[in-house]
Amino acid sequence: MGDWTEYETSHYIKVREQRFVARARSELVEKNPQHAVLRMTATFPDGKKEELRFAIPLDRPFEDVSAKLAREAGEKVPPNARIERKPTGAGTDKLFIGERVYYTTWTSVEITVTIELQETPTNLKVWVCDDVPLDGVVKVEQDNPAMSMTMVLVDYGRARGKRR
Length: 164
Fold this sequence. Notes:
By secondary structure, the protein is mostly beta strands. The protein has one helix spanning 66-72, and strands at 4-13, 18-31, 35-43, 49-57, 82-97, 100-115, 118-128, 137-143, 147-157.
């Protein structure tokens, strides 16, 4: 317990041509054989902070609980929404972030959310590295018709107070 990650997230809201940067921190606060509890804190450009806690079941694939977790985070996912995930690529990359080099594996997917007759496609690419605690995420790029987002790891630590 106590492992943590911090990210900087750049958002571009296309319909308003609005750009902003936020920071997020995730910390493992509890873990047992059934679930892990993450405390996630986001800091927005106006200084506002938002904290959420997620109990993530460890006895089933993450994809099986992702819609439930999205609802807990405030996303409006109607019960009749159909979510399709289609892999579009995979590979390895060497990423230079700050003064560190990360040897990563990446995957890309197209996620299509259909609500009634409205389809919204999202392209998602995620880079992960075994050196990074929690989920190993180093970078995420997401793009859909409404917005684009890039999230980059800025710091991490293992156990309370210990850096890298």
